[in-house]
User: Which sequence fits this backbone?
């Protein structure tokens, strides 16, 4: 386990990109098939990722199949923003699963589409929506707190 | 193909198209040095390193990987008269609001009198940042 000087867990950023790519494919399947059960399975993966991103099946696949070919990472990233993002993904996946399984398909489509967008932006561009939103959300929260 | 699958496929294609456009715009904007349009100069001035020709004023958050990379770049550029000052967005909400910081890292190139001249969201190219610093420094030389 790699820790930074503050003692927090550090991740191989390439593993996160691969995990986001697999997540994108799964979520695209959810939207095409309209499967609430597949959305629920992805919600389970997000739950594990929100606790420890290194323990998801996608991270396992990365370590087994991809990392040995790439070699050790030259830089590592803190796990906290990734865990936060996985938690946000969990909320969207749960709403999507509930929508599809309850027969309210539009709710399922919209929630899964937003999750797909976030996962795809992360996989293709390295854009972490959670990181971009962090200051924005804090400022909104701050405005409400002081009002 | 069922109507539901056709709808789903159309949604997936639309989402990927919109995301690609957004991602490309984001990449284009990211790290670009633009003229800082800040009117509240006293805010930046209060964080300007005393006696510095140029201050690199960086806004960061605790768990932000690009912030660490930008810090390393700024530390290398902080030589003779150039100082690097890093503020955490959580402990400096007033500066965040007054300087219009919306995401991290955000960097301001501040001149000797505390006027923010350049601004960049993300990590600016090191050579371009160096050039911007030189520009701010020589503008100061002409004014003096």
Assistant:
């Amino acid at each position: 386990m790699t820790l930074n000087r503050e003692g927090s867990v550090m991740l191989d950023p390439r593993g996160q990109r691969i995990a986001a790519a697999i997540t994108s494919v799964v979520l695209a399947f959810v939207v095409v098939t309209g499967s609430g059960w597949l959305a629920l399975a992805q919600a389970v993966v997000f739950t594990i990722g929100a606790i420890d991103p290194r323990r998801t099946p996608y991270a396992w696949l990365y370590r087994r199949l991809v990392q040995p070919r790439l070699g050790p990472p030259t830089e590592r990233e803190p796990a906290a923003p990734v865990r936060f993002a996985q938690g946000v993904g969990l909320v969207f996946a749960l709403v999507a699963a509930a929508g599809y399984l309850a027969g309210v398909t539009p709710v399922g489509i919209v929630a899964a589409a937003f999750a797909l967008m976030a996962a795809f932006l992360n996989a293709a561009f390295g854009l972490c929506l959670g990181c971009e939103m962090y200051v924005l959300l804090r400022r909104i929260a701050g405005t409400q707190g002081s009002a | 193909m069922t109507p539901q699958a056709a709808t789903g496929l159309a949604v997936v294609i639309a989402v990927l198209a919109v995301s690609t456009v957004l991602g490309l715009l984001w990449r284009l904007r990211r790290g670009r040095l633009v003229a800082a349009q800040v009117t509240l100069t006293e805010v930046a001035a209060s964080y300007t390193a005393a006696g510095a020709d140029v201050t690199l004023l960086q806004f960061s958050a605790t768990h932000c990987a690009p912030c660490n990379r930008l810090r390393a770049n700024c530390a290398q550029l902080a030589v003779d008269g150039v100082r690097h000052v890093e503020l955490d967005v959580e402990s400096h909400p007033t500066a965040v609001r007054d300087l219009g910081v919306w995401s991290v890292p955000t960097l301001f190139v501040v001149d000797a009198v505390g006027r923010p001249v350049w601004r960049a969201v993300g990590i600016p190219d090191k050579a371009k940042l160096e050039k911007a610093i030189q520009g701010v420094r020589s503008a100061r030389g002409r004014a003096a």
Summary: The longest helix of chain B spans residues 3-29. Chain B touches chain A at residues 4-5, 7-9, 11-12, 15-16, 18-20, 22-24, 26-27, 61-65, 69, 89-90, 93, 96-97, 101-104 (CB under 8 Å).
